[in-house]
Batch of 3 targets.
Target 1
Amino acid sequence: MIFVTNDDGIESPGLTTLAQALESIDEVYIVAPDRERSAIGMAITLDHPLRSKQVDNHAWAVDGTPVDCVDLAVSALLPAHPKLLVSGVNHGQNLGHDIHFSGTVAAAKKATFLGIPSMAVSLISGPPYHYETATSAACRLAKLVLANGLTPGILLNVNVPNCPLSMIKGFEVARQDLGTYSATAIKRVDRVGKPYYWIGGERAQVDAREDSDLNVVKRRCVSITPVQLDFTAHHEIEPLKRRLNDENLEEDVEIGVELRNSDC
């Protein structure tokens, strides 16, 4: 069984097209937000109960985030533990730093936490959207993952150039582009004179490495980036330990405790 979700909502054509394509591989179940929940990252709903509505034989709409959908699907709605989760097809890229904000990638992250091999699939911005290109790539990768699995704690972030399938030049394993976004706030004033803001930003820099995800899709190749859940900078552990020991922070902490316990 393949579990499909997204952050563009249950009525997204990218979701529908993806689910139909994956049915050629295995039985497909859909649990997705009841409306668009883009750029919401790993948000979960804690201030009200979740409600689901069955909209088809194997499909539910949930009034929550993409991560909510994964939690609810695995714990209550699906008849069995999925063999694979595919999140998408997202309307627009999830390249570089986008993965930190993307609801599409967040759903795949959550499923990976739950031990489900997962991938997020995004189509570089349109319209028009060449969904057939993205779903063809998704199906090829789904077969690969189902046959070989993924390393625990690893998911795939897949970005597909928005062009006819015949124009795709291949698949490339890519690094996350490390270019940054600018910080932008557009100030406006409402009818009663109170200010409000639209925030956003543009890519201020692009990673120069040829194997970054942004540069791979520019070559009309499908970009496949293995993403790890472990954020620990392991190479920094020992240097940080040495710096802490050199600065005698434990001694400073003891002095602070003594001061707090004194009468002064």
Target 2
Amino acid sequence: MAEPAPDELSRLRAEIDRLDDAVVDLLLERIAVVRRIAEVKTNATGLALRPSREADLIRRLTARAAPALPPAALTRMWRELLAATTRLQTPFKVAVLDDPAQPHVTTLARDQFGTTTPLTMVETAYQGFRLIANGEAELLVVPAPTEDSYWWRQVTPTLIDSPLRVVGRLPFCPADTDDAAPVPGALVLGTLLAEPSSADLTLLAIETDLNLSRARLRDLIAAAGVDLVSLVALRDLQPESAFFLAEVAGMGEVVQAGLGQAFAPLRERLLRLDVLGSYPRPLGVIADSSDSDA
């Protein structure tokens, strides 16, 4: 292929410079609108974070940019922009559970909340709860539950009885890689009010007697017409009951009511059915397909 003429290269580079200037001008115009929103909401209380609106914005923009711009690239750019403009309205701090075995949690928190948002590392989830209760942080990012994360079994009852709820799942847009292994995830906890987006998930805590298998529980959820995304059994060293975290499609109370009816024949065996939070469904999340009865 012949090299482009020097004059053509200069013209194209000048066009890129013009577009870069236009992009910055539009960003400044956007910031001015954000500042105006902050002025209009002078008497409003609470964080300016709107996970549902942010999720629908990214869904719309990634669809608009496809296939020329990879969704993960656009999401990362817009997450930085959203974090910066949100902090113009209400500054916020994020606590992150510092687990040396799961460094991806800090990376996911930074990608979601931007380079200028202060992150405070905590050694336990309870320490993060205290920071939020004391007003020293507004959000807490923790590893998503897995079969061997015993601390989730311990902390879940406390979470149920607190004002904290799961308000996000990370990453919202997993990066495209050739690695077949699933992307380790994280959950965001906070006291934000759940608002519906165009697609949402709910995390449920389900406690049953020891004789109700995971396969039977999965069948009951399916019979209720609920889309099951993940089902994790929280292990205990000396279990007196079976404890599951089920991630399902839909918003909290509606899903809870539907499952409550489906579980009615087993009411004596159902010890707990609580909503831990509802949040936007990340891009690319599909229903659980495991048939394991482990």
Target 3
Amino acid sequence: MGIDINPALRACGLNPNMAISLRPKIPSFGQQLEQDRFESNNPARFTNEIALTKLVNSNPKIQAILKEVGAPVKLNMADLKPLLDNHCTDVQNVALGIAENLPFSLQSKVDKISLKEAAYLHDIGKVLIPPEVLNKNGKLNDYETEVMHKHSELGYEILKNTNLSKKTLDLIRNHHQNAKRSGYPFVNKDFRADLDLQILTMADKYSALTEKRVYKEAMTPKQALTIIYSDVKEGKLHPFVFKALVSYANSLKAEDVPIV
């Protein structure tokens, strides 16, 4: 059966005849524009080695960030594709699933384009995290944690001078932040964890907890939701976003892993 969300909410105080022509078909001006628009809007355009090399080399701040932690400026392309194909794609699906399960009044407030782009690109900064840190089979020490925590800021800096919206870029930079401002990277007192960010943060954490990684086994959906609920109780995430995640997770139980 599904998880009963009501007690959790109470605990938080929120009760196909065309003629055949032998001439080669030339796309019309409008058709060409549509094709170009599709290609230019695909966030995967930033994830190939040529594009990434150009983006990294054009921003000196990236070198400065890595120099701070003694890490080399080297693309880890071997780990990027599986990361995008698995975790990032899953985060995208979960984030959109959360959005679709929000109360109707909140659904209209979600920037789905920015959310979808940011969910797919949120971990692109990990292409600059050394493999020995990214794939360590065990707990990271303090130095390794410092290096790993640079990935969200690095992702922002890699994509900062592209045509992505400011909203998408801010979501990428702050996907490890929360309403209590206790995450990373540093934000000032005016920072606000809006609805889109809370959806992305929750989707990222749920995906990470429920997937097997080199250093851990996959958790069940129920185990993951229990952990995330602790963030709700601490005021880091909104109960309505959590309830939408539970509804999304329960909707998958017939075709995926039952939540009991």
